[in-house]
Amino acid sequence: MSVRELVVLGTASQVPTRHRNHNGYLLRWDGEGILFDPGEGTQRQMLRAGVAAHDLNRICVTHFHGDHSLGLAGVIQRINLDKVPHSVTAHYPKSGQRFFDRLRYATAYRETVGITEAPIDADGDLAVTRSYTLQARKLSHPVESYGYRLTEPDGRRMLPERLAAHGLTGPDVGRIQREGVLGDVTLDEVSEVRRGQRFAFVMDTRLCDGVHALAEGCDLLVIESTFLDEDAGLAEEHGHLTAGQAAAVARDAGVRHLVLTHFSQRYADPEDFERQARAAGYEGELTVAYDLLRVPVPKRR
C-alpha cells in the first residue's frame, strides 16, 4: 500500500531551540523519499523519526543559508556509510554550487553511492516519473532561493453506475481502462477525471509570483511563517513571510491542508501563529508544525 506523508524533522529558523531543531522535512511519496532542506542535526532527527538513509531518493535544497543546508554533509556521508543501493539526486540553486561542493566534501569519507547533482538555474520541471512531476519556482530572498512543487498525473475514476448501465463487468472494466474504448462505449462515458494530488514546499521568501504559483490548488502546502504579523516589516526586510501572509496565500490558492513552519525563536506561543492564520481567513485544515510530527497527504477528493 502506498504511503504519502510528510515527516517533520525540524521547524526552527536560523537558531535552534530546546524544542525545535533546524529545518528538515521528508516527503514519503509511494516508494520514494524526498528530503527537503536538511539543516544542522538532520541526521539525528532522522534517527528519532525512524527515517533511514535508504529511504532517501532525492534531496531538495531551497537555498544555501545554514539552517537549510548545513546538515547536507552528515546526510550525504550517512548515505555513503550505509551503502544505499540506489543513486540519490540532489537539487539546489546552481548559484550555490560552491557551497554544495564544500558540504559534499566537508571531510574525508569513502564514497560508495552515486550522488547525482542536478543544480537549478530557472523555473521548470526537474524530474518526471510515473508518480509525479517535480518542479521548481524562484522565490524572493537575499540569496537565490527556489521552492518545490510535486504534482501527481491526473488519473481516471471508474463510475460503477455507468459501467452497469453499459453492461461492463469483470475483465471488461480493465480492458476499457487500458484501451480507452470497448465496442461502442468510450472510457469517458464510464469514468471521470481523478485529479492528481499536489504538494508544495515554500521556504524563505517574501511574497512573490513564485509563492502563489507553487501553492495553487495544493492538497498539502508546507510554508514558512517565520514572523507574526506585527513584525511584517522585519519579514520584508529579511525576505520572509508572516503567519497571516502565508495563510492568505493558502486561502487564495484553495489549499486543503496548510502546514506552517520555520518559526523565529523570538516567539514563545505557537498558538499565535494559528490565531493569525485563521484571522487571515484560511478555513482549511491547519497545522502549526513541531519536530517529529507526521502529516498525511489529504486523501483525493
**Spatial gap, N to C terminus:** 19 Å
The total count of helices amounts to 11
Quaternary structure classification: single chain
The tally of strands reads 18
Helix-strand topology string: EEEHEHHEHEEEEEHHEEHEEHEHHEHEE
Point out poorly predicted stretches.
none
Strand order of the largest sheet: 6-5-4-3-2-1-18
Structural class: alpha/beta
| Shape verdict | globular
Short synopsis of the structure:
With 301 residues, the protein is an alpha/beta fold.
Give a description of the structure:
By secondary structure, the chain is an alpha/beta fold. Helices cover 28% and strands 28% of the residues. It contains eleven helices and 18 strands. It has a seven-stranded mixed β-sheet. Strand 16, helix 11 and strand 17 (285-288) form a beta-alpha-beta unit.
